[in-house]
Amino acid sequence: MSRLVPDDAPGFIRANTRLLPVPHAPEIRLHVADEATALWQKTEDELQAIGLPPPFWAFAWAGGQALARYLLDHPETVAGRRVLDFASGSGLAAIAAALAGAAAVEASDLDPFAIPAIRLNAEANGVAALITPVRADLIGSVPEAELILAADIFYERDLAGAVSDWLGGLHARGKTVLIGDPGRAYLPRERLEQVATYEVPVTRALEDAAVKRSHVWRFRD
């Protein structure tokens, strides 16, 4: 575990979140925060640091919920396959993949709190043995996984461009790439086609809506 994380990161996460069903995928429970700003401040206070990333790992975002719902409803997409959940956050899509029958799931994220959060959430859903959390920058790599998942990642221009090119390259290599996204600003729509659409309940404070129309996307051939 990173030295940037408190010695008792699981305890910190449990103390500042609640284990609740995911609104659009209630088969899954996650440790989620009631309010982003308060948890963000507590995280910075705990680490005595300023400028930490928002606690993306503490919420069930719209794209992740859509992707999780799709995997649970279409287990043939994932069954028996090795899966990478990129920028996993809470581990929502990774957990859905494991529940849908994946052979093994790697859940990557750069946030040091996301790694213990993914472990806790995987344990809460009985799939800890199938999910390996990894703190690493995988952009540019060629993972062994046959199925690549990415949700809610296209919110910042430079990151979106790098991720789009990387995922597009993996698709060209024959990997299956599925993206969960409600249509954020830098989603490369011209390179994608919709696979499924859902009306996803979300937190108004985060998404400025009570329900967000969210989609599962794949790259065009």
UniProtKB/TrEMBL annotation:
<dbReference type="InterPro" id="IPR029063">
    <property type="entry name" value="SAM-dependent_MTases_sf"/>
</dbReference>
<protein>
    <submittedName>
        <fullName>Ribosomal RNA small subunit methyltransferase C</fullName>
    </submittedName>
</protein>
<dbReference type="GO" id="GO:0032259">
    <property type="term" value="P:methylation"/>
</dbReference>
<keyword id="KW-0808">Transferase</keyword>
<keyword id="KW-0489">Methyltransferase</keyword>
<dbReference type="Pfam" id="PF06325">
    <property type="entry name" value="PrmA"/>
</dbReference>
<dbReference type="InterPro" id="IPR050078">
    <property type="entry name" value="Ribosomal_L11_MeTrfase_PrmA"/>
</dbReference>
<dbReference type="GO" id="GO:0008168">
    <property type="term" value="F:methyltransferase activity"/>
</dbReference>
